[in-house]
From TrEMBL:
Substrate binds at residues 86, 119-120. GO terms for molecular function: asparaginase activity. Gene3D superfamilies: 3.40.50.40, L-asparaginase, N-terminal domain. The active site is at 40, 40 (o-isoaspartyl threonine intermediate), 119. Residues 243-331 form the Asparaginase/glutaminase C-terminal domain. Keywords: Hydrolase. The lineage of its organism: Bacteria, Pseudomonadati, Pseudomonadota, Betaproteobacteria, Burkholderiales. This is Asparaginase. Residues 32-216 form the L-asparaginase N-terminal domain.
């Protein structure tokens, strides 16, 4: 059942810790798993006052968890999967992350998972995991906008609030916690390059807020229907599909689309203006690519609001942001 105070819990090929608490406490049967991938939350700067000129992913997940009051009375297992800047997120790390989440989420004693992640591609990882796993237990991505060495780092508070969400009855699906707000994977997006409250859920709004150590719901948790088919297909994939994002803008033409199609691109997401509208010259190139076998989907570069489909449009649209639409198209092409 539980382990004595200070004893390490076991897990395959990973660094695992059991947090040593300030007081001796009875170990609970429930576990929370923390998967570390790096990011600003694990960043280190040469000077404490430097909140931008730092190196991401320098500090291990065990050190990030040390002394966190939210962990008192909780059995924690930690694995360091990577220590990267999330701008460099790669498909193979996504595959490994999905596999470790699947392994742990199926353990009956595991209440949920916390993933430390950089902010730049957090919304893509969140949507990928939600599509692949659709977990009934919570998987919470947590990040920071200031490095761990900052004068006032935001990572510890965000981590504590991520644990609060995992321990909340009924929590499910893939979520993101930042600056007291709980966002769902389908809506979360980064909207500011350095402000601590850098994430939004657009006009859908946050799912909940963490206030005074408790979760206040605004909307219901996202519905989840776990399916092994997509996960199993992902594990069998030797080569990921090639999908790119192109933007519609004033003066756009179709040369970049023609070049990508000639080079063998398999899918294109166009970040359109307004309600997914596309410059006429660019649209003609996209139609040529579609007719040549390239999957094409329209999204919008607007920060809020989904694209509303119109019967007259020649290209299909999605309500997702361009980055998430690309994830969807990747997974669809895996079929």
């Amino acid at each position: 059942m539980g382990a004595p105070e200070g004893q390490f819990t076991g897990c395959p090929s990973s660094t695992c810790i059991f947090n040593q608490f300030r007081e001796r406490v009875q170990v609970q049967a429930q576990q929370i798993v923390v998967l570390g991938t790096g990011g600003t939350i694990a960043g280190r700067a040469q000077r404490a006052a430097d909140e931008l000129g730092y190196r991401a992913g320098e500090i291990g997940v065990e050190q990030l968890l040390e002394g966190l009051p939210a962990l008192e009375g909780v059995t924690v297992v930690a694995e360091q999967l990577a220590q990267i800047d999330s701008k460099d997120m790669a498909f193979e790390l996504w595959r490994e992350l999905a596999a470790r989440c699947r392994h742990w989420i199926e353990q009956p004693q595991v209440q949920g998972i916390v993933i430390t992640h950089g902010t730049d591609t957090l919304e893509e990882t969140a949507w990928f995991l939600h599509r692949v796993l659709a977990p009934r237990k919570p998987i919470v991505l947590v990040s920071a906008m200031r490095p761990a060495t900052a004068l006032s780092p935001d990572g510890p508070q965000n981590l504590a609030e991520a644990f609060t969400v995992v321990r909340t009855a009924g929590a499910s699906g893939v979520l993101a916690v930042c600056a007291g707000a709980v966002h769902g994977a389908a809506d979360v997006r980064k909207v500011h390059p350095y402000r601590v409250d850098a994430f939004s859920s657009g006009d859908a709004g946050a799912l909940a807020y963490v206030e005074a150590g408790a979760v206040r719901h605004v909307r219901a948790w996202a519905a989840t229907i776990p399916s092994h088919e997509l996960f199993d297909r992902l594990q069998r994939t030797a080569q990921w599909p090639w999908v790119e994002i192109v933007h519609s803008h004033a003066g756009a033409d179709g040369r970049v689309v023609d070049a990508l199609a000639s080079a063998g691109v398999q899918g294109l997401v166009v970040a359109g203006t307004g309600n997914g509208s596309v410059h006429a010259a660019l649209e003609q190139a996209l139609l040529r690519a579609r007719d040549a076998g390239v999957r094409v989907v329209r999204s919008s570069r607007c920060l809020e609001g989904p694209v509303i489909p119109l019967a007259k449009e020649a290209l299909p649209c999605t309500p997702l942001t361009p980055a998430k639409a690309r994830v969807d198209l990747l997974l669809d092409l895996l079929a």
